[in-house]
């Protein structure tokens, strides 16, 4: 099973949208609008077995009083 985890570093942020795009053209939006605290991560997000990951796209904004957030995507592909 293919899995990803989204990690937020260096600042709090508001995730407006997350889009996971596959080579086939299909996409999924695994998270709703959500607020992340600095140095937190999502639960493990399971992706379809028969799809090849092409891109992960984010729409987010830094929250006031913080720094410039960084987002990492951790993957476990089998």
Rg, Cα atoms, Å: 13 Å
Helical residues, percent:
under 10%
Q: Kindly estimate the percentage of residues that lie in beta strands according to DSSP.
A: over 45%
Unreliable segments of 5+ consecutive residues: none
N-to-C order of helices and strands? EEEEEEEE
* Main sheet: strands, sense, barrel: 4 strands, antiparallel
Shape: elongated
Number of helices: 0
Helix vs. strand class: mainly beta
The N- and C-terminal alpha carbons lie at a distance of 6 Å
Explain this structure.
The protein is mainly beta. The chain is 0% helix and 58% strand. It is built from no helices and eight strands. The protein has strands at 2-9, 13-22, 27-28, 34-36, 40-41, 45-47, 53-62, 70-76. Strands 1, 5, 6 and 8 form a four-stranded antiparallel beta sheet that branches. The chain is elongated and about 40 Å long. It starts with a strand and ends with a strand. The mean pLDDT is 90.
Write out key terms for the chains shown.
mainly beta, 4-stranded antiparallel sheet, 78 residues, elongated
Please give a quick description of this structure:
By secondary structure, the chain is mainly beta. It is built from no helices and eight strands.
Topology:
Layout: E1 2-9, E2 13-22, E3 27-28, E4 34-36, E5 40-41, E6 45-47, E7 53-62, E8 70-76
């Amino acid at each position: 099973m293919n899995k990803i985890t989204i990690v937020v570093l260096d600042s709090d942020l508001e995730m407006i949208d997350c889009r996971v795009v596959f080579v086939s053209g299909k996409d999924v939006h695994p998270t709703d609008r959500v607020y992340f605290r600095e140095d937190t991560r999502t639960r493990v997000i399971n992706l379809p077995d028969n799809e090849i990951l092409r891109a992960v796209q984010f729409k987010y904004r830094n929250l006031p009083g913080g720094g410039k957030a960084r987002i990492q995507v951790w993957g476990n592909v089998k």
